[in-house]
Write a structure and sequence with these properties.
115 residues, alpha/beta, Rossmann fold, 4-stranded parallel beta sheet, two-stranded antiparallel ribbon, 23% strand, globular
Length: 115
């Protein structure tokens, strides 16, 4: 039987490009979503998480048509591969996803209530 890896994807600036990056609204990051779908098709254990909370992760998974096996809080993640826009040490391998329009600060946007 093939080993089933635990693969985690962050929401903001990873699965979605937030409106703060210069768009009228939050939009899907189709390139990252394609990677998510590839791992899922291979039969791996998929995780979607967000520093904005479990509800935010579940809401965006539903909007994007993505099915995860788990929606944990950030501190509860122990995975093989983690995809995030920040430098994180959540997995054995951590992949930093390039932010769109990174020169635009996310500081104020991150403070707003996203529920």
């Amino acid at each position: 039987m093939k080993e089933r890896l635990k693969i985690a994807f962050d929401v903001d600036d990873t699965l979605i490009i937030p409106s703060v990056a210069g768009y009228a609204k939050d939009v899907p990051n189709y390139k990252t979503i394609a990677i998510f779908n590839w791992f899922k098709e291979q039969g791996h254990y998929m995780i979607i998480w967000s520093g904005s909370g479990v509800d935010w992760a579940k809401t965006w998974a539903e909007k994007l048509g993505l099915e995860a096996d788990e929606y944990p809080r950030k501190g509860e993640i122990k995975v093989d591969i983690a995809f995030d826009d920040c430098i994180v040490e959540l997995g054995k391998v951590n992949v930093k996803v390039k932010r769109i329009n990174n020169n635009i600060s996310r500081k104020e946007w991150n403070k707003k209530d996203k529920k």
